[in-house]
């Protein structure tokens, strides 16, 4: 009796288990059929509905099932209903954002000084130039400095001058001095001073008892002979410049300032200059003045800067990179310069609007400060912007269809009278690989109009019942056009010589 009861219980439990399992399998199977019947797939292991699959590199072409991309050596990527986005924004899934290497940056305020990066050349400081001249008429008997740009020190001999007009006054003075008539000798001495005969030369004549007619002209300052206007044997007269000595401890730097930035340059701004050939050396100085006038050829004005050349390494004519900085800093709104997409007519920044949504925003940019750029309008402090990967977002989300919404789109051209406007058709030849309700898979030859090589890809049907006589394996001629959903077939006919 006990054995019969035990057997009955075992059979009852087994039946219940089989019934429950069958009910569970039927439920899952029915749910899968229901999802398929709604025309949209459900991604395995999730409850998210897949709208279509596509190749991120060719986002305009959509596929109704997963598989390998006909364009690239990669698998098609699903696009979910909750990622489709709305309005003018773009939605990027977190996983895809990581794969694309998208990096965010925060719009921030920073204390930055007005700085300008300019180019200039060094010149002699004309205010520190000294000239070598003579007060009497004479002849250059010898040049001790024979070439321009020769370095000299203060007191070095530049030239020896022979003055024949000094001989007679000296002989008269020496004769009166030997005669013992001191009053006449003193008068003769005063006449020699009036003739610009140096006292040292008169003292030498008194010691030797012979008149002296040669005098050395010395350098009045340490520097470089920037001008040498005479040669040996030349006659010079009072006021004639024999040589010009330019100092080297201070130099001028003439920086070219664009006309549009003239208002930003002021006297007294700090200057940091770097030689083009040696970026390791730095020189400091101040803006001395802004020279009046703008060059008609370059549309630039010149700022005269003073540089301290204490090491003596700078020489005139050097090309220098110049940076001017204001004395006080100003608070500015900045973002990384790489975050700005500039088309020439406008600048756009991609802003993280929500958790996964990206919104393009037109901004007005200002000055560039190193790796950052000033934002004059369009953004506010604390917003998140895309700092890298913008071009990949453009490909992934077909951003070209989003950005034009920010401006005024041109009016479409009207069709000619009596003709219906429509997209231009393109022609191709290929072999039908597969036929479905939505598309034909064609292995087509190169299409020169689009610069396409030979490839296998799907072309959408205009409606599910189109081209009923076309079968897999046929060689066909076809025409198609591009639409928002991809490439749509217009006509498909068997190619000449192909089996019907």
From TrEMBL:
Pfam families: 3HB_CusB, Beta-barrel_RND_2, BSH_CusB, CusF_Ec, CzcB_C, HMBD. Residues 130-245 form the CusB-like barrel-sandwich hybrid domain. It comes from the Bacteria. Residues 165-213 form the CusB-like three alpha-helical bundle domain. Keywords: Transport. SUPFAM superfamilies: HlyD-like secretion proteins. Residues 52-79 form the Heavy metal binding domain. Coiled coil: none annotated. InterPro entries: 3HB_CusB, Beta-barrel_RND_2, BSH_CusB, CusF_Ec, CusF_sf, CzcB_C, HMBD, MFP_Cation_Efflux. Residues 250-327 form the CusB-like beta-barrel domain. Residues 334-393 form the CzcB-like C-terminal circularly permuted SH3-like domain. Belongs to the membrane fusion protein (MFP) (TC 8.A.1) family. This is Efflux RND transporter periplasmic adaptor subunit.
């Amino acid at each position: 009796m006990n054995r019969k009861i035990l057997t009955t219980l075992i059979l009852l439990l087994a039946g219940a288990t089989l019934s429950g399992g069958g009910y569970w399998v039927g439920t899952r199977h029915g749910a899968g059929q229901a999802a398929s019947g709604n025309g949209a797939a459900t991604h395995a292991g999730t409850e998210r509905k897949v709208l279509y699959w596509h190749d991120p590199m060719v986002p305009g072409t959509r596929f109704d099932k997963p598989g390998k991309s006909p364009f690239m050596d990669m698998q098609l990527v699903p696009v979910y209903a909750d990622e489709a986005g709305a309005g003018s924004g773009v939605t990027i899934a977190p996983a895809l954002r990581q794969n694309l290497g998208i990096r965010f940056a925060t719009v921030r305020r920073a204390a930055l000084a007005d700085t300008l990066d300019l180019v200039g050349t060094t010149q002699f400081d004309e205010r520190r130039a000294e000239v070598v001249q003579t007060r009497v008429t004479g002849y250059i008997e010898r040049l001790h400095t024979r070439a321009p740009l020769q370095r000299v020190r203060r007191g070095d001999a530049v030239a020896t001058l022979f003055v024949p007009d000094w001989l007679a006054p000296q002989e008269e003075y020496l004769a009166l001095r030997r005669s013992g008539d001191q009053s006449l000798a003193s008068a003769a001495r005063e006449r020699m001073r009036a003739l610009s005969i140096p006292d040292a030369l008169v003292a030498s004549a008194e010691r030797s008892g012979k008149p002296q007619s040669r005098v050395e002209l010395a350098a009045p300052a340490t520097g470089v002979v920037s001008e040498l206007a005479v040669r040996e044997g030349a006659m010079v007269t009072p006021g004639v410049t024999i040589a010009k000595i330019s100092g080297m401890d201070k130099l001028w730097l003439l920086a070219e300032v664009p006309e549009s930035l003239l208002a930003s340059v002021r006297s007294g701004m700090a200057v940091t200059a770097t030689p083009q050939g040696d970026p390791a050396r730095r020189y400091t100085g101040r803006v001395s003045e802004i020279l009046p006038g703008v060059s008609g050829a370059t549309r630039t004005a010149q700022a005269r800067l003073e540089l301290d050349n204490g090491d003596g390494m700078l020489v005139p004519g050097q090309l220098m990179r110049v940076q001017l900085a204001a004395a006080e800093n100003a608070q500015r709104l900045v973002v990384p310069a790489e975050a700005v997409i500039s088309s020439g007519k406008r600048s756009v920044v991609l802003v993280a609007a929500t958790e996964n949504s990206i919104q393009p925003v037109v901004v007005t940019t200002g000055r560039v400060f190193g790796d950052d750029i000033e934002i004059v309008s369009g953004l506010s402090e604390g917003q998140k912007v895309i700092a890298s990967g913008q071009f990949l977002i453009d490909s992934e989300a077909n951003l070209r269809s989003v950005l034009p919404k920010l401006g005024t789109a041109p009016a479409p051209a009207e069709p000619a009278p009596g003709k219906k406007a429509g997209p231009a058709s393109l022609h191709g030849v290929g072999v039908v690989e597969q036929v479905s309700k939505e598309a034909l898979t064609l292995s087509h030859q190169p299409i020169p109009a689009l610069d396409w090589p030979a490839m296998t890809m799907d072309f959408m049907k205009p409606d599910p019942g189109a081209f009923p006589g076309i079968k897999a394996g046929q060689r066909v001629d076809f025409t198609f056009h591009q639409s928002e959903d991809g490439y749509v077939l217009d006509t498909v006919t068997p190619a000449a010589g192909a089996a019907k």
